[in-house]
């Protein structure tokens, strides 16, 4: 009854396969429980599958180490170890409990706290999908005292040898429950005892917090003396998945102190290339003149947690003065590269100076800080590329220098993008920054120094200047790079310098598709392209094709332009006239024909480029929203586009009113509130009013990001769009109908759905002219179809159906369904983007089809031996099937949808031939989550 465990945690180290070393590290209060600590020669682990209700195993673990008599502040440490082979891969809870805690703990209950046992647990995930896994280890003992009115800090100095990412969270202290699980105790945060209190700096109230990233547990500052118990978890994450959790339960003893705590100098985070020698000074001071002891813990000192060479920490005048300086040194190497930083904890503790009155009443206080060190791989060097011959077409052979860190399992990752772009360099940012436009195109072993890029066998685009960079990925510590997920979280190098191919452009490139005139019959679009790099004089030909729609593919030839590629000839421009640019965008492509053996032969064709299309966004009062788009081979993102509005005082004159920055997401939109935000061409502000018309056009700004394409910046206009700020006549809700199922007909053909893997619901609706005597807006441009699987769910948008000007009725087929059951409604959308209220909601259910035979012959001849439904049972969610003999006794039951009754009882005994009666309660899939049951009764003749 006097265990008095101050703190403890369970860790697990993988030995091989499914065999692990399980370790309990327990810290005992020697002042009140020395006898219990001495007598605790063994403990018991409870080990159970987290996802199973089976009975856990309870195994005894012997004490393998005791660090007596005192590791600081009247505390001793006992270590207990058990080697255990888990039966299979799974998530396991490993727990320990022991009577009793101290009495009089102030922040947990119910009292008396000496009746509460001490309990901790650890979750260990053994999963081949994640690769080998072991828990972190906590290298800093929880033995330090807290002082009233002074900031208290504890950090467990957790280190994960697998290189997993660690996160820290506060946890409620527990006592043991059923089957090895824990039960939360009554708990309040320590800072709420004697509240409100104040921090060491004088702010109110006192605070208690845990930094989820660094693991710093800070209580600033205690108010009331006494015992407090707190707990926290150390979580390990791999590739965004939580794969383990340690609970440390610890006791904080708060006392009055006749001294002030010492202070550590803050330390910067370090990011170093592998091979760097780190030589960092660590300094601490004590304003009371107390003698200081400076110590350090971390995985970098321990062989087995990292590969040599190990770090060292030297303090020349330890414990002799009130200012102490230590020197941390570490020769990093390629073996130390990993994604997560190495955290090195430094702790300073004071002791009474000579001449201190009543040194027996002196309470040692501490401060601590963490040095975070990220070790990254060297930058690959010497990257270059040359054109290569390949059956796929255009391809390039990349070569680079032999890499410095030939770590087993590391991979060189090759990245490519179109155009040449600088990326920011920062020693703490490795790899390729997100949003830089590079995509991975291949990876090879780190020993390889060459790669052929042929776009995966599809060939690259000719004439495009591609940019390449290299990054080296390293396996997680303790892996070879071949295990599942071993290259996730293993560290990486900085990106190599860019190599950019500046290739002669062998094909024309479209540079402009700009709308010069907006009209239904006399619209004009100018198309421009650049001349390819080819000798002049030989006959060549451009053939320009046009399709209606931005993504249109029905191309027709609109111009054939003969050329001999002489510089200055007007042969790279075509003005396309007589178009309906008011209604339609257009898509263009260019074929390039060259002379070969005296004949014109098609060399290649360009990527398509569309005109800019301007549309009105959702209608708003006093504002006009416009959106625009263009499907073009150049890049319109990361540029500033220009918006123009017609000056109503000068019809036909457009005033530039805004420059709109467009980011990488290419969100082309602008909302006009009437303010002219571009003053260079004069300021023309307007007041946006309802039902007044405003006309706009947009000029996009883009580039190929290729120094050989001139002009470097490409400007293209949209059509002119005249819109209203709002629409006074809102669309009316449509009237929806859903095709019914003829269940009588289908029941006559029970195999009707057996060959149909998916099903289709046919929707049709009409749009009314009037509702409640009010006219409906006839300018409907689209319908939106909404669907919910169940009638109590909110329907979601599944389709937008555009319609021709007439008729105002349309249909939609919702296909690919696994069931007919579901609910629908439809809305109408007008040309200003205003959406009507929902139509009537229509729900549909499946036919209750379940047909059983009335005879079967379970005689073992493989013919009609099994009683089961005809063909396939359609849309059955679940069922209960019961069979009775002629006296009403139940002889067989099952929940199998296909029944599969073989003429035996549930105990496996053959039933006699004769007539039996059955009752089936079937739950069919329907538009209700909890469908109504259908009961089917009948008889069957069993023949032997």
Automatic annotation (TrEMBL):
> What Gene3D superfamilies does this protein's entry cite?
2.60.40.4070, Immunoglobulins (2.60.40.10)
InterPro entries given for it?
Ig-like_fold (IPR013783), T9SS_type_B (IPR026341)
What is the protein's given name? Gliding motility-associated C-terminal domain-containing protein
Q: What is the lineage of its organism?
A: Bacteria, Pseudomonadati, Bacteroidota, Cytophagia, Cytophagales
């Amino acid at each position: 009854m006097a265990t008095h465990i101050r703190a403890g945690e369970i860790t697990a180290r993988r030995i091989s396969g499914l065999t692990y070393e399980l370790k309990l590290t327990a810290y005992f209060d020697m002042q009140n429980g020395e006898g219990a600590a001495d007598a605790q020669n063994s403990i018991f682990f409870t080990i159970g599958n987290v996802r199973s209700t089976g009975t856990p195993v309870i195994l005894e673990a012997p004490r393998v180490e005791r660090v007596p008599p005192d590791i600081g502040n009247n505390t001793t440490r006992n270590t207990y170890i058990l080697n255990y082979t888990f039966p299979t891969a799974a998530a396991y809870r490993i727990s320990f409990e022991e009577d009793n805690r101290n009495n009089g703990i102030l922040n947990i209950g119910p009292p008396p706290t000496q009746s509460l046992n001490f309990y901790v647990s650890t979750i260990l995930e053994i999963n081949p999908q994640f690769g080998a896994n072991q828990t972190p280890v906590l290298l800093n003992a929880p033995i330090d005292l807290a002082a009233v009115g002074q900031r208290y800090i504890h950090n467990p100095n957790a280190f994960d040898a697998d290189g997993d990412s660690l996160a820290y969270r506060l946890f409620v202290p527990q006592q043991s429950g059923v089957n090895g699980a824990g039960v939360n105790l009554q708990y309040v945060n320590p800072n709420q005892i004697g509240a409100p209190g104040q921090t060491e700096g004088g702010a109110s109230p006192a605070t208690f917090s845990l930094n989820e990233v660094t693991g710093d547990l800070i209580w600033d500052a205690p108010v009331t003396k006494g015992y407090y118990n707190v707990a926290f978890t150390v979580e390990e994450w791999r590739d965004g998945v939580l794969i383990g959790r340690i609970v440390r339960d610890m006791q904080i003893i708060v006392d009055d102190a006749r001294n002030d705590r010492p202070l550590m100098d803050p330390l910067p985070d370090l990011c170093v290339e592998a091979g760097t020698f780190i030589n960092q000074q660590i300094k601490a001071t004590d304003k009371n003149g107390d003698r200081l002891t400076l110590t350090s813990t971390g995985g970098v000192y321990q062989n087995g947690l990292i590969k040599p060479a190990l770090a060292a920490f030297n303090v020349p005048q330890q414990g002799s003065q009130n200012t102490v300086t230590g020197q941390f040194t570490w020769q990093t190497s390629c073996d130390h590269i990993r994604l997560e930083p190495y955290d090195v904890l430094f702790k300073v503790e004071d002791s009474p100076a000579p001449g201190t009155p009543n040194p027996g009443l002196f309470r040692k206080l501490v401060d601590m800080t963490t040095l975070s060190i990220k070790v990254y791989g060297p930058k690959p060097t010497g990257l270059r590329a040359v054109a290569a011959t390949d059956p796929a077409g255009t391809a390039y052979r990349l070569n680079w220098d032999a890499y410095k860190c030939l770590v087993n399992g590391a991979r060189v990752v090759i990245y490519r993008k179109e155009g040449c772009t600088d990326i920011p360099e920062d020693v703490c940012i490795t790899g390729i920054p997100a949003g830089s436009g590079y995509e991975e195109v291949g990876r090879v072993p780190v020993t390889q120094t060459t790669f052929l890029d042929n776009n995966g066998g599809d060939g690259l685009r000719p004439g495009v200047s591609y940019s390449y960079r290299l990054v080296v990925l390293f396996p997680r510590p303790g892996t070879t790079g071949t295990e599942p997920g071993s290259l996730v979280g293993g560290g990486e190098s900085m990106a190599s310098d860019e190599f950019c191919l500046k290739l002669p452009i062998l094909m024309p490139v479209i540079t402009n598709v700009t709308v010069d005139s907006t009209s239904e019959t006399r619209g004009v679009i100018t198309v421009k392209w650049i001349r390819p790099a080819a000798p002049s004089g030989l006959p060549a030909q451009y053939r320009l094709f046009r399709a209606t729609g931005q993504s249109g593919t029905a191309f027709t030839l609109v111009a054939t332009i003969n050329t001999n590629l002489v510089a200055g000839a007007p042969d790279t421009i075509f003005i396309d006239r007589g178009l309906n640019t008011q209604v339609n965008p257009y898509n263009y492509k260019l074929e390039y024909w060259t002379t070969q053996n005296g004949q014109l032969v098609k060399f290649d064709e360009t990527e398509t480029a569309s005109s800019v299309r301007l549309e009105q966004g959702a209608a708003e009062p006093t504002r006009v929203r416009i959106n625009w788009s263009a499907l073009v081979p150049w890049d319109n993102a990361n540029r500033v586009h220009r918006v123009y509005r017609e000056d109503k005082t000068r019809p036909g004159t457009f005033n530039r009113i805004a420059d709109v920055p467009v980011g990488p997401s290419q969100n082309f939109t602008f909302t006009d509130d009437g303010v002219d935000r571009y003053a260079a061409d004069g300021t023309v502000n307007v007041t946006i009013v309802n039902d007044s018309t405003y006309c706009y056009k947009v000029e996009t700004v883009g580039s190929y990001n290729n120094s050989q394409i001139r002009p470097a910046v490409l400007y293209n206009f949209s059509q002119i769009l005249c819109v209203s700020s709002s629409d006074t006549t809102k669309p009316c809700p449509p009237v929806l109908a859903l095709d019914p199922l003829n269940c009588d007909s289908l029941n006559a053909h029970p195999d009707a759905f057996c060959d149909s893997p998916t099903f289709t619901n046919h929707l049709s609706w009409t749009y009314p002219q009037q509702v409640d005597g009010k006219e409906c807006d006839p300018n409907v441009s689209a319908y939106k179809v909404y669907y919910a699987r169940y009638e109590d769910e909110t329907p979601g948008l599944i389709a937008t159906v555009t319609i021709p000007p007439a008729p105002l009725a349309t249909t939609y087929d919702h296909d690919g369904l696994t069931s007919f059951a579901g609910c629908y409604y439809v809305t109408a959308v007008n040309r200003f983007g205003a959406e009507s209220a929902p139509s009537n909601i229509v729900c549909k259910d499946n036919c209750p089809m379940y047909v059983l035979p009335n005879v079967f012959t379970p005689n073992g001849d493989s013919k009609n031996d099994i009683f089961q439904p005809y063909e396939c049972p359609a849309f059955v969610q679940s069922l209960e099937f019961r069979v009775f003999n002629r006296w009403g006794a139940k002889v067989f039951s099952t929940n199998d949808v296909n029944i599969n009754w073989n003429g035996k009882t549930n105990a496996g005994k053959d039933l006699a031939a004769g007539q039996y009666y059955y009752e089936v309660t079937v739950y069919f899939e329907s538009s209700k989550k909890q469908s109504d049951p259908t009961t089917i009764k009948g008889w069957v003749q069993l023949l032997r």
